[in-house]
Amino acid sequence: SYTEDVAKAVLDLIQTGRFGLYHITNSGYCSRYQWAEWVLKKIDWSGALFPAKSEDFPSSVLRPTFSALDTFPLKSILGYELPTWQDATERFLRHWLLT
Length: 99
Description:
- By secondary structure, this protein is mostly helical.
- It has one domain.
- It is built from 4 helices and no strands.
- The chain has helices at 3-16, 32-42, 72-78, 85-98.
- It is flat, with a radius of gyration of 16 Å.
C-alpha cells in the first residue's frame, strides 16, 4: 500500500474519533508475481520474470494461501475506499522515476 494513501486514511480515521483495529490498504488485490509483472510492464522492462511458489522458500512460519485484507469496516466509517493498488503504484512510480 502506498504510504501517502495510508497516512491520509489514518488522519481521516483519527478525525472520526472512532477506535479499533482496521486494515488500511489500497483496494483490489494481486499476487506478488502479478504486482511485479504489472510494474515491469509500466516501466517497459523487457527481461524475464519467473513465478515462484511459497513452498520454494521453506519457512517455519505458517502463511495463508490467500491473504488479502478486508477493508470494509474502514470504508464504512470513512465513506470512501482507498485508491486501487494500480493507481497507487502508478503514482509511486511517477514520483520515483521523476526524482
